[in-house]
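Hi L.,

You mentioned the student needs an example of a multi-chain input paired with its predicted structure. This one should do, with 600 residues in total across all chains.
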Amino acid sequence: MKHSTNSEIASRLRETAALYEMDDVAFKPRAYEKAALGIEALDEEAGEIFRARGREGLEAIPGVGRGIAEHIEEMLAHGVFNEYERLKKKVPVEVLELMAVEGVGPRMVKMLWQKLKVRTLRDLEHAARAGKIRKLSHFGAKSEANILRGIEFLKQSGGRRVLGVALPEIERLERSVREFPEVDEAVVAGSVRRRKETIGDIDILAVSKNPKRVMERFLALPEVAHVYASGETKTLVRLTNGLDADLRVVPSESFGAALNYFTGSKAHNVALREMAIKKGWKLNEYGLYKAQILKLKSQNHNSKLKIKNIQIAGKTEEDLYRKLGLVYIEPELREMMGEIEAARNNTLPKLIGYGDLRGDLQVQTDWTDGDNSIEEMAAAARKAGLEYIAITDHTRSLAMTGGMDEKKLLRQMAEIHALNSKIQNTKYKIRVLAGAEVNIRKDGSLDIVDEVLAKLDVVGAAVHSHFKLSRAEQTKRLIRAMENPHVDMIFHLTGRLINKREAIELDIEEIIRAAKRTGTVLEINASPERADIKDEYIKKCVEAGVKMVIDSDAHAISHFAFLSFGIAQARRGWAEKKNILNTLSLSQFLKHLKNTTGSE
DNA sequence: GCCGTTTTCGGCCCGACTGTTTTCAGTCG
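Structure written out for the whole complex:
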């Protein structure tokens, strides 16, 4: 039958957790939840792990023991497992679908099913509209209205947003909060701070001595569309743009602990708390605490014992990690991909910095589908702090973009050379390289002849069609392109467009081996919807010693700003400066390409 | 059901907010 993917396994485990919770079983729900988190954090498919290392491999996954390993094995073979089916038979309800409604959890699902036979989201909506829910004990008109609103929101929200698209608005909101007179400090935490390629909501942390007033000002912002909850220290709202935003206010002595807590990831936080417990301490969003026993004299001369918690860290994140015996862990690494172990052993990578790029090797112009001329792009790149760029317009197979043939490429090359001579005598100190984004045909051949490729400074090859080939065919196709002695790098390897188009199927291990063997560079495409290659592949490249570049894929002068998202992506993949070739000076960079053309 | 630099048994992350209740369970992050 079907073999389950990690996300299918994780959601089945989550559903099992909910079913156990409804059954009033203790501790199992948390165990299944934890196992789901462990599966989600994997950088390899569970199916692969099982094929390679069997049951033992599965049991090595954090949160997975003998029992759940058996369930996973069953899921890999049949998509479901016996215990799940047994539970589901008892409560034949679409638990996950119902729990997706804000404010609805397992207990509520159980009650709704028992009393009103609610099994699906549709049933729930009907029951609420018919006014049946308010009549249940422990429910009222308010709960019913909240459920209806939750269903509405669920219908509208398109799930997670692409970071690069949402970030400008998020930063505007952050600035608004920072400018409240009572706010001493405000910062966006959560997945935005971890720079995940997509984000689910916005977590803002603020320091203030007057939280009440801060909350009032926040609720009065024009972008607040609905208030889910609002208290002294925590407010949760829906914004007019459809995103949810969470504002927390803490005192300054708790800023580091709160920042750490609200940055996540959740699994990372739980691991830190467990470390604290092992040391006999307690970690929460207000700080790291040590219990101190105080002797109090009472009136009848018997002494009474009282426990007082003393804060031992929490004003800064650095403090917190240090006290726990760890070196500071950058937010982009807090995904439980081995960062805690590495921090303990002081073997964390020294991540590439946000100002480390000196070049950009994928830039489009108005010769094809870009908005600006070569010179305009060069000037914008210079303004963005770059020392060199490669002009890489599309080649002819992409007729829709006005793709270039050999003749047009040679003409463009001449123009670039002329521009470089002209630039030498101006204030712009930028070097423009002649390149191309050459199209990889279905069979792995290229649509520009080798003699012309040989004349270019930089050749990037990319897939723009036949996205549905089998894994084996697709892998072979790309390896053939990498074997071309003129192809310096592969642009946006997997072709994914987040929320729009799936990645092509590839044997990534084999691709990385081929890149290493042929000396081909893999691009980290910084265009927010691409973020291609993804973090776990970057980590594999780092481990394999495959070099990468970070490119903006700019189609307009404003697009050089994308580079920071590419750097974030590289950092999430544990990349150091030395792994990314365009942190080098131009002459050093060119030495790493397959054929240096001598134009340097 | 998972896990072990206190443990192979006996623990299991922690606090805020809501709604419907009279002291708290459920939900969320």
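You could point out the following to them. Chain A has four domains: 6-156, 161-250, 256-344, 359-590. The CA atoms of residues 209 and 251 of chain A lie 6 Å apart.

Best wishes,
N.
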